[in-house]
């Protein structure tokens, strides 16, 4: 068995204009142990909070609004909180639900999806770390590891109840866990014996439950279903984890914040390629002057144009267009920021002209 290798990531390295609500996905060339991810995956972004120190001193102009919860603002320093999802892929990259009986011989891959709890901050560079065990000679094991606990294999069972094995195996040699029902019935009544093939004479007994129970060496057991028959047997193969030996890292920069969620009318690949709209009639911005994320724009610029894919309404109200004059990327030079600046709007076909 070999250690996992990162095959592809999304957003791609150094990608700009990333949608604020985009999940971060990483595809590994083999299945991974989910219990090792929480300590090995880090998403870090620059801090945009304006409060600092034990007395929470405000270090920009009080005329600009402060976040409701300064620890929950979308610009982070350190680890961005979020949730993980694990998707099994076949060799072609398609999602599958086939069981994995032997972790050491699995031909499947894992697509790791990380979704931040809050949308990311606009115009901020984020960095992702996927840690490996860079010192394999010590006893401290860290980083993403290969899958260690297989799915349950059933014997010639008469009952419809199933055993579910989970966790991350921490043993030093491959093994197999066996569970056999010795008293039939529903959860709470049915009982089972379990043992390992490396020591079949050491038998332990438990009561069937839907709650996870730790067997040993990081392997957990739970049951699903209500029909358990005497003699029903469930086995699970476990293997020694193989840790990534290097730490991978990549960066991406979020967009301006005009788009906060990924459009449902486009598709993107796991390596960050731009998708093709499903329908050409989708109403969207096709171009703008200055361009999105443009830099070194003349300070005397007062006219901006936005071209859409469809004809606009003949009149647009002041409330529909907001122009904020804010520090670029959080760099504050002492000038007074202005929100919802006065402007003159005009429409011609599919082009909106804004004059400030």
Furnish the topology, listing elements before pairings.
Elements: E1 6-10, E2 15-18, E3 24-28, E4 41-45, E5 51-52, E6 57-58, E7 82-89, E8 109-116, E9 125-130, E10 153-154, E11 162-167, E12 175-183, E13 191-196, E14 199-207, E15 213-216, E16 219-224, E17 233-238, E18 248-254, E19 285-289, E20 303-308, E21 344-348, E22 351-355
Parallel strand pairs: 2-18
Antiparallel strand pairs: 1-3, 3-8, 4-9, 5-6, 7-8, 9-18, 10-17, 11-16, 12-13, 12-17, 13-14, 15-16, 19-20, 20-22, 21-22
Structural account:
There is one protein chain. The chain has 3 domains: 6-146 and 243-254, Immunoglobulin-like (Sandwich), CATH 2.60.40.3710; 153-238, no CATH class; 285-355, no CATH class. Residues 48-64 and 67-76 have low confidence and may be disordered. The protein is an all-beta fold and 356 residues long. It contains no helices and 22 strands. The strands form 6 sheets. Strands 10-17-12-13-14 form a 5-stranded antiparallel sheet, with no helix packed on it. The protein has a 4-stranded antiparallel sheet with strand order 1-3-8-7, with no helix packed on it. A 4-stranded mixed sheet has the order 2-18-9-4, with no helix packed on it. The termini are far apart.
